[in-house]
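Narrative of activities, Objective 1.

The group set out to show that a structural description can be obtained from nothing but a protein's sequence at a throughput compatible with the screening campaign. Below is one input-output pair from the validation batch, recorded exactly as produced.
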Amino acid sequence: MTIEFWILLVLASAAGAWGGYQLRRQRKRVHKLKQSLLEINQHTHEREASYAEDKARWEQTEEKLRNFLQLMDTLMNTIPNPIYFKDAKGVYQGCNKVFAKKIVGLTRDRIVGKRPQELPDRIPADLAAAYQREEHKMADKAGFHAFESPVQCADGVRRDFLFNLAPVLDGHDKPDGSVAVLSDLTEKNRAARNRIQKERLEGVLETAGAVCHELNQPLQALSGYTELMAMQLEGHDARPYVDNLTAQIDRMRDITDKLQGVTRYETKDYAGNTRIIDIHKASEKE
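Output recorded for this entry:
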């Protein structure tokens, strides 16, 4: 064999060895790549499973939150008292149907996002300003605050309401708004006024009865004496004075008759800041 043959054989062997080496290296790379792909695939499955679990938990939490909000909405709309709540800027963030329908006269979606000052045709400016002052008092107290105030209802009638305000706190216990529950005091206040009027009337009637009882006998005596004087002074220059005296006695008798006929408590202004019983109005027939 010639030397060229051996050279070719050596080269062929070397080429085969190099090819085998490259093939083994390629196989190792492919193996490592497969391992990496398997690991990535496993991690992907683990992450997908974790994501699915997290998603399921989120959906459960969202469902619980929706159910809770639905419960709170149902609860608010079941309570017969008007209820609303505002944020720290005084903007309505929610209310129940009673407040929307009977107080403001609008649907809730037309109230939420508005301040009372932005609803002047529903909440007069003087009342909106009064409510704002009371809310500032609540903020200064940093706690529960109650006050009475008139409210213009959806029917245009102003009624007396008790406002119970409480602050709403954020996650850092800082004021973040307020919630208010209203109670209609109109009938209660009217009953209280009627009771006071009745008590005052009873006092007036007792006083009037005592005055009339004490004055009737002296008036009868005076009336008798003036009649005698009138008869004896007929044609005398003093007779006109007797007639004037008789007229004043008749006037006093008219006053006592009106006192006995008092049926309601009516007063009128007198000197200074004093008020006295208006006998004429108090005894008028309705």
